[in-house]
Fold each of these.
Amino acid sequence: MGIDRALAHQLLGWVKVENQAANLDANTYSVDEAKALASVLQMDNITYVLRPPLYVEKIPGQDGRLFYGEGLIKTEKDLDRIQLPDPRDPALYEGAITFAQSKGPYAAFVVSRVGFFPAWISMGIENFCIALYENRPFVEAVLDLYFDWAGAVAERVCQMGFDVFVSTDDFAFKTGPFVSPTIFREVIFPRYQRIREKITLPWIVHSDGNVVSYVEDFLSLKIAGLHPNEKGAVDILEMKRNYGNRVCLMGNVDLNILGMGTPEEVEEEVRGLIRDIGPGGGYIVTSGNSLAGYLLPQNVLTMARAVQKYGRYPLEF
């Protein structure tokens, strides 16, 4: 779903551009760039990113990584700072239309954020959580700005020739969700329900961390896929047993192995996941997060080759 440019430089020999971490679109690719990456990684899909701006301190890290600091939306007085692109403006979609029309033999994924992540990161997670109890109308106002924008954008992009809609809204730590299931169902989930009718493509939901508390909620929205089933946070074998006949499971390849392991360990990791999760279908191999810039290129290429080696049906082990 996401490939850091720092890794793309190494995989394809692209010229490195300095200070890309300051640009939220640093990991957005033209259709030709996306096809080049898909070719070298033997992927079936290419990805177009269309996300709302975040109002947060942006901290550049090593190799183009972007980190978020303090949220800038502290009180109602800051609401006017949130200036989202007009979802009715055709200019907003020019790149998306070109991308979808030029997808060729690939499945074209459009990746956005539905509303929760932009709200809490722009408010700052501590401020967001306190405001849930001390000033809930403020939280709901920020959520509505982003969810309403996402709904309007989703309605448009789902008519442009894309094949899959992906929402990337992290809402969990490794140990559990950011907010309790009760608060989630009172405040946040009704907004997901509200925009469900706008998303007419197969819908993949992404969140790092342990999302088990929310799985049934999202399955009630008839989502098509759940990503990335993060290693160490989610037991993907249990997910397969409990939900494998209701949703496509994606991910779980260990980032630590991709970043620090050997190619042999990567191959065994991929082989084991295909062996255990692949039977019956409904599994797509990806990393347990993204293809980050700190991963070893040879390990990423090994993962791609292992998918081709072990992932053809009928599976034989």
Note: The CA atoms of residues 13 and 159 lie 35 Å apart.
Amino acid sequence: MKCSCPKCSALLPEDLSETPEKGMSGKCSECSGSYWIHRESFILRCYAVEGERYCCSCGEALGPSTYCPGCGALYPDYCVVNNKKPAQRAFEKKNFSLNLSLPGFSAKSAAPGRKQSLVSAGGRGGSSDLRRQLLMVGGGIALLAVIAVVALLYLRDRAESKFIKEYVVALYSLKAGTDQCVIKSALLASGSRLVEKDLDQLKFVDDKITSALQVLSPPEKFIIVQDRLLKLSSTYKKLYRLCTTSGPSAEVTLSAKTLESQFNAQAKELKGVLPSPLLAELIDKSSRYKNLQFMLD
């Protein structure tokens, strides 16, 4: 394994294949500096934290490639080495507390003697007390309504932000899977059979796509883009089955090209209905991950 200390670049005695996803800390034997190392799936590269990335299989530095230059693994899981533990990407849970006290309705004020005093007073004092209590009740109800609206808006915004990030990951995965299937179909068209390594690569990306799609839970305003994404997924699945069930044949390329053209046409339709927050996220991430550029060309 070749992962290096982020402070002095000395080799670290870490077995990257055993690194947990939640991460762990360590101390460099050369400079005595502390470091943090954690494991991530390749699909999360479009949201990667700062730090050098190393292939979990052989320890080679990955750089911007979609495959490991050391062992040749396609879309490999990797480990990230940082000076310190990075901030969590997951949304933090927020706790809401509400402590309202409405004067005028205590056990003491509800006593029979007090009620009789208010009724018998009949003057300005009793009337003003009752009016004040009603105003307090109305104010309390209005405050509760405002808090409820703010809470609903916060939860809605959080759900939309979460969906946008997960949607970009799903698009990234579908494009990666489609490109990989096109490459494998060219091998079949040349007369070569797909070996176990080729099928494992296709299955690996397909599993990542399935996971990315399963977590999507679209808010109402994103229903249309969710439907268009499912169309892209359906076309990709046809291409995946074509590659995994076909033998060597020149006709495979023609079928694959037809499905790739259908995928690109559906992507063009999707671009026409992208909401501005989702488009902004794609633009932001495509500057680093060129695989998303197909949604912006």
Note: The two ends are 39 Å apart (CA to CA).
